[in-house]
Amino acid sequence: NVAGHYISPFHDIPLKADSEEENGIPTKRARNDEYENLFNMVVEVPRWTNAKMEIATEEPLNPIKQDVKDGKLRYVANIFPHKGYIWNYGALPQTWEDPHRKDKSTDCCGDNDPIDVCEIGSKVLSRGDVVHVKILGILALIDQGETDWKLIAINVNDPEASKFHGKSVTFQKQK
Question: HSE (CB half, 13 Å, CA atoms) of 73?
Fold first, then answer.
């Protein structure tokens, strides 16, 4: 953070967005209407890049690292005319898809990762950025037999953000 302290993008950044920061970390404060449905997104993969990066939830301080499968670094393919990810891609901090609990919507257990976010704004963000997003929609995927939720969102500071509106969003903590 700006104070030079190490933080975890998974544990130390609140889920809900707010207008204030303390030592470079978005802070939790009392709710108000302006920030009621805004969430913090941690950018893992900037738009137009190929390396599949993710928050390492099992490592101390949860660094953002390149995903490895079968001993090989993972990349997303280019699909003409685009290069890499066509959106900024990341995760909601302090969320987790439980691999031991079946999702009622998909009848599959979670993928053991934070909830994914596809940020569709016009700006190219940087890896590790924490941005306030408003949720526009949600898509449930089943990937290799596991539930993998994808949120479609836009950075509230994007010039186009005022043109997009989503429904009220509520996340409930699972017991």
Answer: 7
The DSSP bridge partners found for residue 143 are 146
Say how far apart CA 20 and CA 55 lie, in whole Å: 24
CA distance to 30, 106, 151, per residue, from 24 (Å): 19, 37, 25
pLDDT in tens, 90-139: 999 999 999 999 999 999 999 999 999 999 999 999 999 999 999 999 99
1 three-class SS: coil
Angle CA 37–84–82, to nearest 5 = 100
Could you read off the pLDDT of 19-56 as tens digits, one per residue? 566 656 665 554 555 556 899 999 999 999 999 999 99
Q: How far apart are CA 67 and CA 71, in angstroms?
A: 10
Q: For domain 21-163, which CATH number applies: 3.90.80.10, 1.20.120.160, 3.40.50.720, 1.20.1440.230?
A: 3.90.80.10
The residue assigned the tokens 């890049």 is 49
